[in-house]
Amino acid sequence: MVTRWVVPQNFPVRWSRGRSHCHCRVCPSLRLCSGEHARASLPPPSPPSLPPSPPSLPPSLVVSRSHACALTFPHRSYQENSHIYRQTREPSENMASGVTVNDDVIKVFNDMKVRKSSTSDEVKKRKKAVLFCLSQDKKKIIVEEDKQILVGDIGETVDDPYACFVKLLPLNDCRYGLYDATYETKESKKEDLVFIFWAPEGAPLKSKMIYASSKDAIKKKFTGIKHEWQVNGLDDIQDRSTLAEKLGGNVVVSLEGRPL
């Protein structure tokens, strides 16, 4: 059996009695050992070892939000991970869909909400109902053109303002709306603003998602509004009793001058 010694190429040598020999002192000759006879018998180098992959979680495992942050930032505390999650996963309502509210929308709401003592001409110009929609680039909520009812139109071009408002709603898209409802109870006559979110079944899914995610943005601009109504079909909104229940329940006896 022949023992093979592995000698590197630039192995240090030692001089003795005028001759050079390998520092390991095992070469058969006294000449300078280059290590070629040892390197020729070496096996091919093995590829570098890769770091072990992390264990995969089973698909049935449900990870909570705090646990997900702990897995992402294991060196942080629970409070720090919760704060990071709120910053990265829970943005503000305007950033949820990237939609902002135009200033004209807020102005229309303030004009309908505040009932100032004004002349008859100014009262006629006040809006009874109005629709809001998304802009073409889907980044702003604006006032929809020619989709409004004025108080002065009632009795002249509009016989029933509520039925006229229902006709303004599109059947294949979503809308936001404000309706100034006039109703009577057993005790008195009242007027209240109603915020309506129109999301019919025939609307595209993408439109429903954008309008639903942007609803809080416009709703928070309508401060002090009491009634909110989400409608998903004509059968619900054509029935006046459904709106009467939103306004006051069984105490409402008439809506827009028409008995229930």
Automatic annotation (TrEMBL):
GO terms for molecular function: actin binding. Pfam families: Cofilin_ADF. Residues 98-247 form the ADF-H domain. Coiled coil: none annotated. Keywords: Actin-binding. InterPro entries: ADF-H, ADF-H/Gelsolin-like_dom_sf, ADF/Cofilin. It comes from the Eukaryota. Residues 42-58 have a biased composition (Pro residues). CDD domains: ADF_cofilin_like. One of its GO terms (biological process) is actin filament depolymerization. The keyword Secreted does not apply. Residues 39-59 are annotated as: Disordered. The keyword Amino-acid biosynthesis does not apply. SUPFAM superfamilies: Actin depolymerizing proteins. GO terms for cellular component: actin cytoskeleton. Belongs to the actin-binding proteins ADF family. This is ADF-H domain-containing protein. It comes from Tachysurus vachellii.
